[in-house]
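Below is how a single chain appears once it has passed through the pipeline. First comes the sequence as given, then the structure the pipeline wrote out for it. We keep one example in the README because the format questions we get most often are answered faster by looking than by reading.
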Amino acid sequence: MSVPPRTELPDGVEAVSIPLGAAHVAALTAGPADGPAVVLVPGFTGSKEDFLPILAPMARAGLQALAYDQRGQFESPGHGGRYDLAGFGDDLAGVMSGRGRPVHLVGHSFGGLVCRETLLRDPAAVASITLVASGPGALPPERHALLETLLELLPQVSLQQIWDTKEELDRQAGIPPQPADVTAFLARRWVANDPASMAGIARALLSAPDRTAELASALGRERPGLVLYGPADDTAWRVSDIVAMAERLGVPAVPVPDSAHSPAVENPEATAGALAAFIRNQDV
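Resulting structure:
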């Protein structure tokens, strides 16, 4: 995944800190205060910067967009508590409560599971939900080995050692390196994570139940949903499973051209356009 390094923020995008009780989460925000409120939730090993390419375009479309690092991710400190879907859902509920009105949720990959958890807990707080490259529950069995290996390594070696090993294996496999500034950002983000947070997310991705039927019951005309996915995605859930989930939910499954697992990075114009059109349509 190619993530633009955050050397400077685009015009109109602001870095903020959101209090959550005695703790806080780091966030990026853009857009008019009176626009439809959108909260964007990143996935495993990701961060708020995964949405950076689409924040300014969403703001220009009149949306008040906010992306944040989940607890223990990058610039949000780990603050104890539960590193499971319920705990991450608590944090999202806290972020949403500061918006002052029902929120449009956008969850990327694991972030989609967190959004689902929060909607099922308090449907009235959610105006709509968009799942981006996210699936119905646990990752398929063929994706488990890497997560299981990570869970074995985390108590024994540092995140820096894991990163260095990954870089060496990539070199041996002939994988082309990222530009130096991107590599530096990705390395800095990786080692800044709280290992307990990473382990909790990995366990959730290995065991999360399929709650599609419950989510379908919670959606409807008053609480619409959307599924966005990259046609070339071979990182997490199978594309066929994502499309089947959308069918079960009764919501559109929209492919983002020229993208894989990270449409907001790989095709930000199309991703921002699809999100803005969907969300603005709910507020007419």
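The mean pLDDT is 94.

See the next section for the split statistics.
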